[in-house]
């Protein structure tokens, strides 16, 4: 059994703030081949597919497709605000290496 990723309360709160005053747009977190370390995270708004894992909190949804799920097993999806900018981030225990930008990793 694959341990599902978790979404932090801070990430759900930021998603709720982004969606305030408009129709809910689920956040899709996926993994694709590429980037400087072999795989990269794709974080964007999407529409739920029938086979997606749907994580819910604060009236919001985060979607994970079944192909990306093994790469994100046990990961934490958070929201970070730093001097260089604000963004959703993935803390992934499966990553053996990652690049400086935090969007590319290897397993």
General description of the model:
With 107 residues, the protein is mostly beta strands. It has one domain: Sandwich (Hypothetical Protein Aq_1857, Chain: A). Helices cover 10% and strands 42% of the residues. It has one helix and nine strands; from the N terminus they run E-H-E-E-E-E-E-E-E-E. The chain has one helix spanning 9-19; strands at 6-7, 27-33, 39-45, 53-57, 60-64, 76-82, 85-91, 97-98, 104-106. It has a six-stranded mixed β-sheet, with helices on one face. A three-stranded mixed β-sheet has the order 1-6-7. The longest helix is centred in the first third of the chain and has 11 residues, at 9-19. The chain is globular. 26% of the residues are buried. The model has no long low-confidence stretch (mean pLDDT 86).
């Amino acid at each position: 059994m694959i341990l599902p990723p978790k979404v932090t309360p801070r990430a759900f709160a930021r998603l709720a703030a982004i969606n305030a005053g408009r129709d809910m747009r689920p956040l899709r977190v996926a993994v694709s081949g590429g980037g400087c370390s072999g795989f990269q995270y794709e974080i964007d708004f999407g529409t739920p597919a029938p086979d997606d894992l749907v994580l819910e909190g604060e009236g919001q949804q985060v979607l994970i497709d079944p192909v990306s799920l093994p790469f994100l097993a046990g990961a934490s999806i958070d929201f970070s605000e730093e001097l260089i900018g604000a963004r959703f981030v993935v803390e992934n225990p499966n990553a053996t290496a990652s690049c400086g930008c935090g969007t590319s990793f290897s397993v």
